[in-house]
């Protein structure tokens, strides 16, 4: 069992309350929730006919797409740093 202290944080995302349990700080969890809420509202404003499930999936797809782009960029930068060291 881990000694890491977990916190419970209640957040509002797209009008729904969620209790998130994790090891991150409350402020970090609130930031993440705010960014998800913002992205959902952005997508919804461009596609008002989407039901909540499709909106959530599109938000997740956008988030993972952004993550993969950033991960790829970080890997390229790490390779460039290693190349410069060698």
Automatic annotation (TrEMBL):
Alphabetized Gene3D superfamilies for the sequence: 6.10.250.790
Highest taxon above the source species: Bacteria
Question: What's in the GO CC field?
Answer: cell division site; cell septum; cytosol
* Keywords associated with the record: Cell cycle, Cell division, Cytoplasm, Septation
Subcellular localization: Cytoplasm
Quaternary assembly: Homodimer. Interacts with FtsZ.
Matching PANTHER family: CELL DIVISION PROTEIN ZAPA (PTHR34981:SF1)
What NCBIfam families does the record tag this protein with?
PRK14126.1
Q: What does this protein do?
A: Activator of cell division through the inhibition of FtsZ GTPase activity, therefore promoting FtsZ assembly into bundles of protofilaments necessary for the formation of the division Z ring. It is recruited early at mid-cell but it is not essential for cell division.
Protein name per its UniProtKB record: Cell division protein ZapA
């Amino acid at each position: 069992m881990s000694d890491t202290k977990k916190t419970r944080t209640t957040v509002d995302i797209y009008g729904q309350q969620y209790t998130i349990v994790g090891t991150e700080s409350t402020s970090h969890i609130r930031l993440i929730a705010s960014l998800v809420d913002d992205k959902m509202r952005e997508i919804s404003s461009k596609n008002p006919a989407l039901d909540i499930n499709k909106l959530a999936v599109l938000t997740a797809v956008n988030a993972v797409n952004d993550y993969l782009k950033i991960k790829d960029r970080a890997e390229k930068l790490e390779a460039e740093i290693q190349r410069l060291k060698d």
